[in-house]
Amino acid sequence: MDWTLLGFILYLIVILYVGFRTYRINKSYKDYFIAGRKLNPWVVAFSERASSESSWLILGLPGAAFALGFVEIWSALGCTLGVIASWTFVAKPLRIETEKYDAITLPDYYAEKFGNDTTIRLIAAIIIVFFFLFYLAAQFNGAGKVFNVTFGIPHVWGMILGAVIIVFYTMLGGFFAVAWTDLIQGIIMIGALVILPLVGLIELAQHGTNLADAVSSSGSNFTSLTGGKIGWAAVAAVIAGLSWGLGYMGQPHLVTRFMSIRSADEIKISRRIAIVWAIPAFAGAILIGLCFLALKNNGFFEGIDLSDPEIVMPLFTKTILPAWLAGIFISGAVAAMMSTADSQLLVISSSLIQDIYHKVMKSKVSDEKLLYLSRIITVLVGIIGFIIALTSTKLIYQLVSYAWSGLGSSFAPTLLLILYWKKTTSQGVIAGMLTGFITTIIWTEIAALNSFITVRFVSFILALIVTWIVSLFTYNKGKVAA
Length: 482
Prior knowledge:
single chain; mainly alpha; Sodium/glucose cotransporter; 20 helices; 0% strand
């Protein structure tokens, strides 16, 4: 009996059951998109963590640590600090504000904050749809890699299988299904990220070596915290890693979790849970990649094609663990992909339905019709994301970095200023969003600029400065945050 396959099938049965179980809970499009603001703090915390840390955490980050070594520690640290900052500075005030304006999406909140500003709503929605399609494609790509390495399913068919499952249960249960499946997925993910590196370290100890010594045999650059770089290149490497943290405060699929909790006073409970989850998760992802590299240097994985570093986690799991346990943790890799992809599907669908169709086009339809249209749009968006995944040649790490930079720089600086600076104007917000959006697209395409300093840092700083300056110049002329 293939215990790996059995463990995975049981996982899928649970996920699909949740989708069917939550189908009837959705009475309106508000239930479908933010669960009617009824979720308890445990579900919200695990949902935010699971939907945030996609196949990038399970596949991309271990792959980067395997390929580059200790320098990726800065990425883990940056992400951890970003999680703490997002829960500390954004979660509670945003929950209070979005209920005050009856907003169910980030563009909805931005627009209502400035007197139902259609321009802000439209620009925000377009930015979300554009970048999230690439983010969604990264998750489908991750599904293809996991199914290929684990079960020998061709990459394309693995992507199809992953896409069909995600779109199906998301379309059925909406945010209720997404949040409750995230709880299950978050538990599996943290189990994999804690246990796998521990097993790897024990295996190394049994071979009479330690992690640093085994990694160093690949070259001194692998044990350098700057990747062997000096001068400005070393500084840029550190900034590149830490800059991942900047985007957390503006990712639409994450801040939506803050909106869905049943009470702003329960945010502090969720915050503690999320931080306790994040610290071992990021450390574990780095250790998985480093342990794989160390074991490879000690004779493991001979004859295996490792040209794609993002197969490290599933390959490591299959090789080092008993089959039944490997099945559970392989589900963790799929869980990471699913928990983010379903959230992205909902955010794109909500932007198209709530912000563009319902508010910008001012379509007067019933809640039931909006719910029906939301499900149709969810399926169509899934198909488009799959097509992008099918035609893209970029690694998961690259796709996620691009989308993360675009979304984080477009929304994090503007959101922080809206929440904490009363002189923020609608013109400032529009200028800031467009700056983050355009800078990400242009900077990413110019290799010399991106190698000088990461787009994740530059786009955030420029968007923050532009929002501030334009708001100062238009404070007495434009719309000010209510």
